[in-house]
Amino acid sequence: MSIVHPNITTQTRQQLPYFVGISATTTGATGISMNLVVIPPGGTAEPHYHANYETAIYLLKGRVETRYGRGLKQTKIAEAGDFIFVPPGVPHQPHNLSAAEPAYALVARNDPNEQENVILYDPTFESEP
To answer: pLDDT tens track of the chain, all 129 residues?
Structure first.
């Protein structure tokens, strides 16, 4: 059993600050990661997708609009208390709708080394997923 005190932040490939929680590095996990992500006021992640793994998100605080799908042409808005599921290979780009308050989300993935499998996505390049 492990307890992780999430006082170490890292900047993700998506250009968002993460409080590192459960991962292969912190606990020796072999099939899961769980982290706290903070989207700064008005902040937007780099467009990206996750190769070969699923993502489950619980929005703790804030309102986040996520553009998703081929060309990021679809949108959904999540509010605090909502669960979000992102299948493998689906391009997406979350944006904090508040200009004054950060958004906080708990992110779980079935990949203990999840940042190694984040792939940045150019929505103008149509041959990507």
So the answer is: 988 887 767 767 677 777 888 888 889 999 999 999 999 999 999 999 988 899 999 999 999 999 999 999 999 999 999 999 999 999 999 999 999 999 999 999 998 876 667 888 888 875 555
Residues in the chain: 129
Q: In whole angstroms, give the CA distance from residue 29 to residue 11.
A: 21
Count of domains observed in the chain: 1
Contact yes or no for 85/58 (Cβ under 8 A): no
Residues 52, 88 contacting (CB under 8 angstroms): yes
In a domain, 129, yes or no: no
Domain limits for position 17: 9-120
Q: Rounded to 5 degrees, what angle do the CA atoms 31, 65, 118 make? A: 35
Neighbour-count burial for 95-129, b at 16+ CB within 10 Å, e otherwise: bbbbeeebbbbbbbbebbebbeebeebeeeeeebe
Could you give the maximum distance between any two Cα atoms of the chain, in Å?
45
Report the CATH number at residue 76.
2.60.120.10
